[in-house]
Amino acid sequence: MTNATQQNSGNGLSLKAKLWLFLAPIVVVLTYLFVTTKHEAIDTKELANDREAIKSCWKNHANTPLSPTEKKYVAEACEFMENEFLLKYRTKP
Fold it and tell me: Which of 4, 76, 82, 83 is deepest in the core (most CB within 10 A)?
């Protein structure tokens, strides 16, 4: 090999390597954004559904004619749902 050929071959990265270095971070960031926004949308729906279930539980507790024992049982179930909500979302329903 001549001196000029050696200089050209050691000039840097190939086009394929440059393309990977350029596109890899973009793909990683786009994947991260897609996953996090999708996860937040699911959590938002799930959070709203859980809140509605707790609200419905307390409404049934207040509006349904039940014996004192049954009312106590329903209240305990509603409180359990609230505690699970608090553990799952780290906020009060």
Answer: 82
Burial of 47 (0-12, 13-18, 19+ CB in 10 A): middle
CA distances from 60 to 10, 52, 66, 76 (A): 77, 12, 10, 13
6-41 pLDDT per residue, tens: 444 556 788 888 888 888 888 887 787 777 766 665
Closest by alpha carbon to 61, among 74, 52, 73? Answer: 74
> What is the value of pTM for the model shown?
0.56
pLDDT digits (tens, 9 = 90+) for 50-73: 999 999 999 999 998 989 999 999
How far is 93 from 78, CA to CA, in rounded Å? 11
Element (H or E) spanning 82, and its range?
helix 68-89
| Distance, CA of 85 to CA of 93 (rounded, Å) | 7
